[in-house]
User: Fold Nicotinamidase from Neptunomonas phycophila.
Amino acid sequence: LLLSGTTAIVAGAALTPRQLLADTLSPDTNSALIVIDVQNCFVPGGTLPVADGKAVVPVINHLAPAFDNIVITQDWHTPEHASFASSYDTKKPFETTELDYGTQVLWPDHCVQGTDDAALVDELDLPTAELIVRKGYHQHIDSYSAFFEADRKTPTGLQGYLKERGITSVYLAGLATDFCVAWTAIDAAESGFTVYVIEDACRGIDLNGSLAKAWDAMTKAGVIRIQSSSITA
Ligand code: VGL
Ligand code: ZN
Assistant:
């Protein structure tokens, strides 16, 4: 954050003096809230529960009316997906393996297409959401990011959707901070969007220090860390 008089330059985007002084952000018609993987699998009772994961739901529901544009993502794996430990003879969940595209963390079976585990959390109340992006549906490629799959080459189409609709700023919320939120945030920044991650609208897995590493990588990529209290309609 470079402060020069009354204007701050954040990753190329100028915040107006009003936004700076009032310490608030007002999403405009060129902003979108991206709600990442708030699915039964990632909350307590699911197959890959994130501690306190359900706490993001009321925060996101409260934020939603401030946004003209809302996109939802769903982790959406095939049975026997390459990211499941159970797909390998000798692997246990949270170990890693080497795949064509690099090191892959192996997870418990989770978010299998069409199951109740993969459904959005019931209490999520986003009637105005325009698009649901599903990802991780290629058997041999994982996809934490909502923009590019783990081979870092295969696009999901989300960048085209947002750019074609004139979206320039994205606000991220959901699960998990250190995996799908972080990868989505970094890809969004690299794709030229102004990116805000709403910290209290996210929860992390924190596997071997992954949460601190993710914030570090997001900050280096120019992602802006904010709290939901900064957002006003
Ligand atoms: C996620 C691990 C595996 C996530 C998805 O949504 O953060 N994490 N699949
Ligand atoms: Zn997954």
User: Anything to note?
Assistant: Helices lie at 17-22, 56-63, 158-164, 177-190, 210-220.
